[in-house]
Amino acid sequence: MSDAALLALFCGVLGAIIGSFLNVCISRLPMDESIWLPRSHCPRCGAWIAAYDNIPILSYLLLGGRCRVCRLPISWRYPAVEALTAGLFWAGAARWGASWQTAKWCLLAAVMIELIFSDIETRILPDEFTLWGAAAGIMLAPLAALPPGLITLLVGGPSETPLGSTLNAVISAILLSGGFWLVGAFYAKLRGREGLGFGDVKMVAAMGAFLGLEMAMTAILGASIAGGVLGGLWIFMKGRKASEEELPFGSFLGVAALLAAWFS
Ligand SMILES: [Zn+2]
After folding, report:
1. 209: Cβ contacts below 8 Å, ≥ 6 apart
2. Global pTM exceeds 0.85
3. Are residues 116 and 92 both part of a single domain?
């Protein structure tokens, strides 16, 4: 096996393990439970899950998607998150090789997958992933350069230097979250109800820090269009009552951020 294939395989396995950890975060962070203790247990019968039943993806398949003790079904979300994280880590390593760009892609994938599923299930975007995601994006900016854009042009100097890239990440995060907050406040005043949660405001800061202004704005625009179209279809199919349901907009943002990063 070549070095490149070996690295991709290693990252894929690492992704499956990280995905398993993301599952714990998705289940526990919205309830303000500790992600470290107690160790994994079946959400239905409470039985502890033995280490050999806690192997990412494989255990789900071997157990036929059921708890060993109570035989009730385990959510498909567990193997889906593990397989998705493994796949994106593998693909990133196969594309960018042993580089900071791969590390950045993997971190972005982990952050966005947690937020996508957290928002679908609970409509909560945990600070541990939005705010710390923004901090991680800024810390990686000098190591894996953001694409040059308007901000690098305005701050001057060669665009892909560590300093230019870091400034791009910081300013993008501030501008986008500030803009989002303003739009949300304006909408709330106009409609008399909240349209954008504060979680979304913090999430776009992470997107700006990882992607830079232009790419993050493209992703936000794509997510808004997809959210508008699919939300409209949902209301059309389910009737007017559905318009009172809250759309998991963070999930749309997460998918759009991954697509924008991958296709840039
Ligand atoms: Zn059980």
Report:
1. 133, 134, 135, 136, 137, 138, 141, 169, 170, 172, 173
2. yes
3. no
- In sequence order, the β-bridge partners of residue 92 are none
55, 76, 98 — which closes off a domain? 98
Q: How far is CA 66 from CA 18, 73, 158, 182, in A?
A: 22, 4, 56, 46
Joined together, the tokens standing for residue 81 give 């998150």
From ligand 1's centre to the CA of 115, what distance in Å? 26
Domain span including residue 43: 1-98
pLDDT of residue 23: 94
Cα of 48 vs centre of ligand 1, distance in Å, is 8
- Note whether 140 and 100 are within 8 A (CB): yes
Tens-place pLDDT, residues 155-193: 765 657 888 889 999 999 999 999 989 988 887 787 776
> What pLDDT score does 242 carry?
62
Structure tokens at 124: 């909560």
* In the chain, % of residues over pLDDT 90: 64
Distance (angstroms) between ligand 1 centre and the Cα of 251 equals 29
Q: How many domains does the chain have?
A: 2
115 lies in the same domain as 175: yes
Centre of ligand 1 from the C-alpha of residue 73, in Å? 8
CA of 120 to the centre of ligand 1 (A): 23
Query: Same domain, yes or no, for 142 and 221?
Result: yes
* 90 shares its domain with 108: no
User: Are 10 and 56 in a shared domain?
Assistant: yes
CA of 24 from ligand 1 middle (Å) equals 16
Distance (Å) from CA 252 to ligand 1 centroid: 32
